[in-house]
Specification:
rod-shaped, mainly alpha
């Protein structure tokens, strides 16, 4: 799931996210990130 997570949110989202992280978009960006993590975990569990 690390492979899917890195390009999705870890790639470009990290650079601009640092500056906007202190602003309002922080929780907005955090929500989808957690959703992706949960979805990836579900897939991983289903695969095993």
């Amino acid at each position: 799931w690390l492979r899917l997570h890195a390009p999705n949110a870890g790639g470009p989202g990290l650079i601009p996210g640092q500056g906007t992280r202190s602003r309002m978009p922080q929780p907005r960006v955090h929500m989808p990130q957690l959703k992706i993590m949960h979805a990836a975990m579900k897939i991983l569990r289903a695969a095993t």
